Amino acid sequence: MLNQYWNPKYETMSRDELTALQNERLVKQLRRAYASNAYYRQKLDAHGVHPDDIKGIEDLPKLPFMTKDDFRQNYPLGMCLVPREELREFHMSSGSTGTPVVMPYTQADVAQWAECMARNYRMAELFPGDSFQITPTFGLFNGGFGFFHGAHAAGLFTVPASSGNTPRQIKLLHDFKVKGIGCVVSYMARIMEVADEEKVDFPDLKVGIFGSETFSDEMRQKIEKRAGIKSYDIYGMTETGGVGTTGMDCPEHCGLHIWEDQYITEIVDPETGKVLPDGSYGDVVFTALTREALPVFRFRTRDISKIISREKCACGRTSLRIARIDGRLDDMLIIKGVNFFPKQVEQALLEIPGVLPEYQIIIEQQHGINDIRINVEAEAGVTGFTVAKHLKERLGFSPKGDVFAPGTLPRAEGKAKRVIKVNLDQQ
Fold first, then answer.
1. Is the pLDDT of residue 284 over 90?
2. Model pTM score
3. 370-383: string of b/e by CB count within 10 Å (b at 16+)?
């Protein structure tokens, strides 16, 4: 029987062993950063702290936070710890909200990324020789290359489809008897929709690894039932080194396993920055212990989650688990005095029998006031009254909106655009 762990030494370490390893790696990493780059020296000096003051993870709160602004202010490589000739590649965010965030990689960083991804693949019960289709773009965005590096390390047969061209994606899935696919969950819904139209099925497809966008348990269940697969929620970001670097959920679906030999996790109060006790929701904060070119220390992700458990999981892994991401602080919507995340809208919609996975959240601004319209596709018999009534019960107010026939809302060849902002004063 093939091993259920990719790297059992680190995936099943005792809590004491993990703590000792984190302490050792944190001290070493911080001293290296302080000695190698003026940005880190100036940041720590301005905060009145020296690497010698940090003996282990209990001293983390002494360090200042990092944010995306640090990356943007030091664009492109101002935070890099190694000479340029030691770099092998870089990836970056879209930069849609300003200067992009750049993450450079040494050969060791690429290997670290591949190691984390290989663990994720094995956790999803993908083994050497299994075929895996990669749908994220191969380019500056990290998704395609992250899945690719990890697949090679894990010994998988890769189908590097990249993004778009859904009919071709379907042909590849069918013709190459693909066992696993990596994509955003909304694109998986689109693939299955087109496959139904073309009357194509995928008897070999067993695994879906979904990242980049939050999705509800209700969406997960619909996709799993429709595609006949087991799905996994993968976690990682540009600042931590890319997709899958921080972890993924296991077959038990009891939270996201964080690779603690690679990253220290904190949950802090979004307003005060104070570390919160386990079980409390807050801002997820990561410290990278093994990244070589550009390690982050106390990086505030703006993702909302909580630490579920530090105990051994039923899957046998001992790393702490955090709740699946509820949303980003930046994505929180405030309508008629009610705060909520798009994921909560999706969850409420998919609780209604006959409602399909395609929907739009339209934020209408007029005279400085925001209102919301929610459009959704549904099978015959679902009425706008039914949808509005359920949303009021779940969200606390009644949004405007319409029910559309299946296949009539706009589709995206990739990540869905769920939230649309419209300024009615300019129309």
1. yes
2. 0.85
3. ebbebbbbbeeebe
